Fold this sequence. Notes:
The complex is a heterodimer. By secondary structure, chain A is mainly alpha-helical.
Amino acid sequence: MIASLSLILLCQLVxxxxxxxxxxxxxxxxxxxxxxxxxLLARDRFPALARGPLGDDGVESASRAMLANLSLLFVPxxxxxxxxxxxxxxxxxAILVILAVSVIVTLLATVxxxxxxSSLLPREEDRP
Amino acid sequence: MxxxxxxxxxxxxxxxLLWLTVTLLIYAVTDAVSLKTRRHPLANPVLHSLWIIGxxxxxxxxxxxxYFAGAQFVHFLLGPATVALxxxxxxxxxxVAAAILPMLVALAVGSLTAIVSVVLLAQxxxxxxxxxxxxxxxSVTAGVAMGISESLHADPSLTAVSxxxxxxxxxxxxxxxxxxxxxTDFRGRGFAAGIAAHGIGTARxxxxxxxxxxxAGIAMSLNALVTSLLVPLAVTYLVR
Lengths: 128, 240
């Protein structure tokens, strides 16, 4: 558990360092995600890597536990709404309408594109 | 026993213990209620945690800074949780590889739509420039969106609020909207939820359908990558 958490934090740390060093506008944790993904893929090729947090479902179960409670992690930032009450009193209706319309448009555009693009491909079951 | 009950409150309200406990306890209760209603969209645990904790802070006249000093231990985990998204992506790599083309096309269209629609709408409503910049990354997970907002010299705390409002609205609306369209491909439905409504949409997708949840998680992590590259570009071209 601790080793798995350390590996996740280490990936994030590598991400943060890489982002600062290269000056790219990508957030550190996203680079950390790519780094962890590469580690997991490398483990398939080099079984010697399958030890510690990378062996025996370690980093996988730690990640699943964290992702199972993902929505909790948004609560502290969301409570920040109490700081923005004056701004929301002034622009709140506009902001809510803008976000709602944008969400609906984005959901529809994404799902329509996904369905349209997959209908152009041969179905999975038809492949050898 | 303390001779003045207020001195105990003054002590506790300044310690991280109280606000960390309040955050976890209220979320545990609202999540249990959500489970009891068989995950009804309107029983969204984030939505109800926010107003209950917010009201509690206002009633006790506690500043957000004091609250956050305790709640930051939970907030900090947003970064590691973003890294952890590598795991569902890895575990479903075959399914992902099989749907890679529709996903990439939908990612490009969805990510662009999320950014451009919010910027154009905000301009149409005549919102000030700093608010527009703070709203632009609203469809990606809070940790990443706040990073983007910072790099644009916008207001990261307003970004966090709009990210969470977006996520809650997406989570509430996605199921009725998708049922209305008659689309039954849960890969696509989940993917859309992850693109439009990040982690809160992903949590919702996992409640509805396992495959939808996996695709939402993938959409959310890919969108975090693409949006952090697209927002600075979009802002340069769209916001004067």
